Each structure stands twice: as C-alpha cells, then as structure tokens.
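Quick one: structure for this chain?
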Amino acid sequence: MTDLILTLAAFAFLSAGTPGPNNVMLMTSGMNYGFRRSLGHITGVAYGFPLMIVAVGLGLSQLFALVPLLELALKYICAAYLIYLAYKIATARPKIAQSGDLEVSGKPLTFLQAAAFQWVNPKAWVMATTALTVYALPLSSTVNAFAVAAVFAFAGTFTATGWTALGDYLRLFFSDPTRLRAFNVVAAILLLATLIPVFWPNVL
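Got it. Here's what it folds into:
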C-alpha cells in the first residue's frame, strides 16, 4: 500500500505541476497582480480540486455515465468559459500608475471563483477520474476518495504556489506594459490550446 501511495503522490505532483489551464492562469495572475493578491486563486486551485475529487469519488462520475448529455454539456460550458477567460487575459491593459508601479485592469480570481473553475477545467476531470481509478487505494470508495483528495491537496499547495511565485518573479522582467501585454496574449493562446485535446484528442 505504501508503494501505491507513493505512486499516487508522484502522479499528483506531475499532473498538478505540468502546464494546463490552472497553471497558465496562476502564472499569469502572479505576473499581473503579484503573489499576495493571488492567494485566493492559489488556495482555490489547491483545495477546490480535491473537493471535486471527493464529489467524483462519491458518485458524480456515475451520474455522467447515466446521463451522457451532462458530460457533453459540461465540455461546451468548459470551452465557452475558457474562451472568456482567455479573452479577459488577452485584453487586460497594463499601465504605469502615477506612483510608478505597474497596474493591470481587472482583478485576480477569488477562492470561490478558482474552486468553481475546477468543474469546467478539462484537465481537472481527466486527473480526477484517472486518480480515482488507476491509482485507487485498497479502501472503501468513500475513504479512497478522501485519501486521494488529501494527496492532491498536498501536491496542489506546492505546485499552485510555485507557478504563482514564478509569475511574480517574472513580473520584474515584464514590468514594461508592452512586454506584459505581449505575455498576456501568449498566455491567452496557451489557455485556448488546452482545449485541443478535449475536442481533438488524436491531435496531440
């Protein structure tokens, strides 16, 4: 069982730490708003996803199996929301304030917004179902769901913090509004690119 937990932890760190919608947005938030202002976003990702794992483990996935149209509807809601977020990122207008600090229009995601985003995040659904099936612990379904969620909460705290801190560090280089605007456009394109494996799984 120890080996299985270690394998699950490795999967959690790798899947939570690799580029995806959450991490692109966390890095972008750190770069645009700084680490401190992005704490709500960080905690919403780190603990919102484990809550989703618990819900899926307690039977939500069976509901999708019974009503396939729900999964299809979620896929298109996800796409629409990601397109909206990409638009907001690409059109954010950085400028130098009178104080000399760099200001960006808009505001970072709150804890509730970031936690709710997990439900329309295609990578999150793949991670949740894979963790609960491929890396299932030899426990009851309920205990397994909470155990897997705890492992992801631990891994997500580190990875979400790291991606946001990276964005905050790069903020020094992108202190020029023109550079930051260019970065935001690239980040928006990367966010849209995460939809490719959702609708065209054979492309990548």
